[in-house]
Amino acid sequence: MPESLTPELIKTAPKALLHDHLDGGLRPATILELSEQIGHELPADTVEGLGAWFAESADSGSLVRYLETFDHTIAVMQTAEGLARVARECVEDLAADGVVYAESRYAPEQHLAGGLSLDEVVTAVEDGIREGEALAAEAGRPIRVDTLVTAMRHAAKSREIAELAVRHRDAGVTGFDIAGAEAGFPPTRHLDAFEYLRRENFHFTIHAGEAFGLPSIWEAIQWCGAERLGHGVRIVDDLTLDGVPVTEIETPYADWSPEQVSAVQLGRLAAYVRDRRIPLEMCPSSNLQTGAAPSIAAHPITLLDRLRFRVTLNTDNRLMSGTSMSREMELLVAEAGWGLRHLRRVSVNAMKSAFLPFDQRLEIIENKIKPFYDD
Ligand SMILES: O=c1[nH]cnc2c1ncn2[C@@H]1O[C@H](CO)[C@@H](O)[C@H]1O
Ligand SMILES: [Zn+2]
């Protein structure tokens, strides 16, 4: 295993990313250029100014306000050209950051204002992704990117969107998700979609346990049958140490002794999630912005990893959080006591949990991830 964890080394590490929103990862320069073409008004007119505007506006402490910033990215993703370009650049940016496998998600229902059909939206995105994969391979940074089709939880289109995802299953769509404001929109509102997907042997994850707590996670798993949890960070609400909720203990999780960690008591839901190895798609920087976690040092990812939940590390929205996979890794190394073995574990966990066929997952673990960490 390589020894010192410099930013350069972190950048070269092969990474797997399961939770990244296509409409949350645009380059500011692309937003500026596409907005000008369509006459969309933006809150800033320089690359730096716009990047800063997204990061600051998303830094609101509220998921609902965080989500309002997406109006400006979605505005430039209403044509086949705009969608394909954003998808292509997403793949190139991830590849340049050392990502070897990613699942990129977006909600086709939000891209119909320019007259595209749902199927045309998906086709445009897949075209852009294939182009990006070809360019990344040419640049010596091969990457595989699949997509997850998302339905918005406040809307009532999830069954239609689930059918859309299944129609494109052999063209790059490997899963389904629901996203958007969580409080007031429980996963069971979309039960019909999830039951349909299960009958189709299709994969899905559910954003749950971010802005709302244990009941949302419980519904996602026990009613809807989610294979993975988007965020799932509030599962810590089900953990106690000597009868005290772990979130009320001030010592940073990295500094807890092994005895303290093994004395943590899991409630029934947390125990189920850990026993069943249900993957948690954790996104530290995003959680700080929406108020789902107080700081990197106090982010539950470190405790959940020490307790051997199936933790994965993700970006959520690279633009809104001004982040990348490398940056999320650097933050945990600098502020939460993470080392190479933690980075290895979340990377292998992510590949184990990917919606990619099993043989292809193994191939990436054995030929890309392990050789880097185990040499
Ligand atoms: O962290 C999140 N929690 C819930 N919804 C989100 C999050 N990030 C993005 N979206 C929502 O997902 C849509 C499709 O990509 C985005 O438009 C945004 O509304
Ligand atoms: Zn998300």
From TrEMBL:
<dbReference type="InterPro" id="IPR032466">
    <property type="entry name" value="Metal_Hydrolase"/>
</dbReference>
<feature type="site" description="Important for catalytic activity">
    <location>
        <position position="231"/>
    </location>
</feature>
<dbReference type="GO" id="GO:0016787">
    <property type="term" value="F:hydrolase activity"/>
</dbReference>
<comment type="similarity">
    <text>Belongs to the metallo-dependent hydrolases superfamily. Adenosine and AMP deaminases family. Adenosine deaminase subfamily.</text>
</comment>
<feature type="binding site">
    <location>
        <position position="180"/>
    </location>
    <ligand>
        <name>substrate</name>
    </ligand>
</feature>
<feature type="domain" description="Adenosine deaminase">
    <location>
        <begin position="14"/>
        <end position="367"/>
    </location>
</feature>
<keyword id="KW-0862">Zinc</keyword>
<feature type="active site" description="Proton donor">
    <location>
        <position position="210"/>
    </location>
</feature>
<feature type="binding site">
    <location>
        <position position="21"/>
    </location>
    <ligand>
        <name>Zn(2+)</name>
    </ligand>
</feature>
<comment type="function">
    <text>Catalyzes the hydrolytic deamination of adenosine and 2-deoxyadenosine.</text>
</comment>
<keyword id="KW-0378">Hydrolase</keyword>
<dbReference type="InterPro" id="IPR028893">
    <property type="entry name" value="A_deaminase"/>
</dbReference>
<feature type="binding site">
    <location>
        <position position="207"/>
    </location>
    <ligand>
        <name>Zn(2+)</name>
    </ligand>
</feature>
<dbReference type="Pfam" id="PF00962">
    <property type="entry name" value="A_deaminase"/>
</dbReference>
<feature type="binding site">
    <location>
        <position position="316"/>
    </location>
    <ligand>
        <name>Zn(2+)</name>
    </ligand>
</feature>
<keyword id="KW-0546">Nucleotide metabolism</keyword>
<feature type="binding site">
    <location>
        <position position="23"/>
    </location>
    <ligand>
        <name>substrate</name>
    </ligand>
</feature>
<dbReference type="InterPro" id="IPR001365">
    <property type="entry name" value="A_deaminase_dom"/>
</dbReference>
<keyword id="KW-0479">Metal-binding</keyword>
<protein>
    <recommendedName>
        <fullName>Adenosine deaminase</fullName>
        <ecNumber>3.5.4.4</ecNumber>
    </recommendedName>
</protein>
<dbReference type="InterPro" id="IPR006330">
    <property type="entry name" value="Ado/ade_deaminase"/>
</dbReference>
<feature type="binding site">
    <location>
        <position position="19"/>
    </location>
    <ligand>
        <name>Zn(2+)</name>
    </ligand>
</feature>
<feature type="binding site">
    <location>
        <position position="21"/>
    </location>
    <ligand>
        <name>substrate</name>
    </ligand>
</feature>
